Amino acid sequence: MKRTVILPVEQTNSAIREVVLRGSASFSEQHQLTRSVIYLRRQLGCEQIWLRPQVSAPEVTVSLHDWSNSSAQVPSFDRLLDSVMKAGSVRLVLWTKDWLAGAHSAVEVLNRYQRFLPLLPAQLRDELPSAPAEALDVWRWVLRLRPHAGRALRLAALTQAPAALREVQSAGDSTLLRDAGDISFFAMQSWSYLRAWGEAETVETTLRRLQRMTELALCHALATRQPAVISATFERYFEGRARAQPPFVATAGDATAVA
Q: Between vectors from CA 218 to CA 206 and to CA 188, what angle results, nearest 5°?
């Protein structure tokens, strides 16, 4: 049975016009900020990530220290962004004193709200006018997993249209589309799913998704902010995988290859 969840942040015409990173004024931290801009642009496929504002827009600031706090409730950040974006598009400011430690949290934030980020020119805007939030996020993940995804794959992510799904299956891209849907679940739906369906159902769903995801998709899933019960399920899953794998024993051939 398909599970319906309440999606975070209302889908409006508002957007995040740009992302600005801020931190302390020390030389070492400014250097780390510059490196973080490059890293986040590459991870998100979004060029509108800066050290200084480039456009005029109201600001909403997220403290990465608060975001990463074990007691933080991500829906409260959803409500903050929602309340500001009701008035129009915004600049998202990510702030931390320590960008060496904060870069991972920044990826988590941007993964959750990526559907509001500026599009690169190659990512076709004309496909999007009526796309709901869930489908738009899957579409974004398809493009991140395969930047030059074909039209059928893009439309299948947005519409789940039978003709597009058949074409995707014929092209051997069903796994990629499923990966995009699974990553999107962890990036933006898991907190609402837990609230709607409870812990037992959420743990079962989490394990089912993890077991079928590719290695690349699992890496992306690990860069999402989860409730405690899902984080614990992640740990249990990966610990089980580690125990099931035989220990690695270096051989002379391995040493030669390294040398």
A: 60
